[in-house]
Amino acid sequence: MKFHKTNIFKKLDSGKRGYDTIEIVATLALILLFVVISIFVYKNLFAKSASGVSQQIDSAGDFDNDGVANFADKCPCEKGFIENYGCPSGYRITGKENADCLKIKT
């Protein structure tokens, strides 16, 4: 029996090309799946953060119109004095002040 080098290499090459094609298709399918899942996850995360922003009044605003911006106002729902960090005169700041007025009720 006489083997021709060219025939053996042709068989190896054709098998190798077929394997490469399957490998490329599988890799592209995985990349596409990753992209689709990433877009879905990003879209859901972005939608949640956007809805959270829309449910709150601007933190730079002044809900109670006492001259203290909401982010610095210790009592953002009650009108107070600048000297008392936006809380009414004589009010003792506990750190657990009510800030529910800054959330929009739906």
Tell me about this structure:
By secondary structure, this protein is an all-alpha fold. Helices cover 47% and strands 0% of the residues. The mean pLDDT is 75.
Shape: rod-shaped
- The computed structural class is mainly alpha
Uncertain regions spanning at least 5 consecutive residues: none
Amino-to-carboxy terminus distance: 86 Å
Order of helices and strands: H
Average pLDDT reading: 75
Oligomer: single chain
How many helix segments?
A: 1
Q: Helicity, in percent?
A: 40-55%
Number of strands: 0
| Strand residue content | under 5%
Q: Summarize the biggest pleated sheet.
A: none
Rg measurement, Å: 33 Å
Helices, strands, pairings?
Elements: H1 5-54
What's this model, at a glance?
The chain has 106 residues and is mainly α. The chain has one helix at residues 5-54.
